[in-house]
Write a structure and sequence with these properties.
Strand content: 5-15%
Shape: globular
Helix content: 40-55%
Low-confidence stretches: 163-183
Number of helices: 9
Strand order of the largest sheet: 1-5-2-3-4
Distance between the termini: 40 Å
Length: 224
């Protein structure tokens, strides 16, 4: 029996947080003003997402970052059309990009799709338990919800500084260096609670669990 509800009652990131903590696998369909978005999970990690809304193509991401030239992209797209494979797998087979570069671009593309959908406050969702394998590709990424949040914030909200040490989650503000006067900050109660936990230099997951917060609110408080 599917699980269904509205984004007003249960925002997408909070829903994904639940799936992450309980290592759920399945397919999540979200209907919002952005259109239909399909998100697939494997043991709590997001492995694939496809949306009716426009997203930046994988080839353009690699082109902008430099590993790929326009001529190489054209060659890969032609080979993809002839071979019927996904672009990432085609690029890897042709030796035009490394697996690491492809996986990094796919991770950003995946995070951006999910994060943009998570910003919607109106809409509905339906979740079904199922196994899933991304269509036709041997190049697969699996992202935790905290990676989705930080990568999404970095790309969508022009917070590129989050990419520094992105996967360590050990970046915490230095509260004792005199550069921040906490008394001047007008923070909501949950963020004061968060700051009280930071002195222990815990990682993002530890702070989130100890504070009874979501990773989304934790990340926003840490990096804004």
């Amino acid at each position: 029996m599917p699980l269904s509800g509205t984004l007003g009652e249960l925002p997408l990131l909070e829903l994904l947080e639940i799936f992450s903590r309980y290592y759920r696998s399945g397919s999540l369909c979200v209907q919002s003003p952005r259109g239909r978005t399909e998100i697939h999970l494997d043991a709590g990690r997001i492995i694939y997402a496809e949306s009716e809304a426009d997203r930046e193509p994988l080839g353009k991401i690699l082109l902008d970052r430099g590993p790929l030239t326009p001529d190489q992209l054209e060659e890969a797209l032609l080979a993809q059309k002839e071979g019927g494979r996904m672009l990432g797998e085609t690029l890897l087979a042709l030796g035009l990009a490394t697996r690491e570069a492809i996986e990094e671009a796919l991770a950003d593309q995946l995070a951006e799709t999910v994060y943009l959908t998570s910003l919607e406050t109106e809409g509905s969702f339906e979740y079904r338990v199922s196994g899933y394998e991304p269509p036709g590709s041997k190049v697969v990424v699996k992202l935790r919800i905290d990676e989705i949040v930080l990568r999404g914030m970095a790309r969508v909200e022009d917070m590129s500084h989050l990419r520094v040490g992105l996967l360590s989650f050990r970046q915490v503000p230095l509260l004792s260096d005199g550069t921040v006067n906490l008394r001047e900050l007008d923070l909501p109660p949950e963020e004061w609670k968060l700051l009280s936990l930071i002195d222990g230099r815990r990682n993002l997951d530890e702070i989130t669990l100890a504070g009874g917060l979501t990773r989304f609110s934790t990340a926003r408080a840490l990096y804004h």
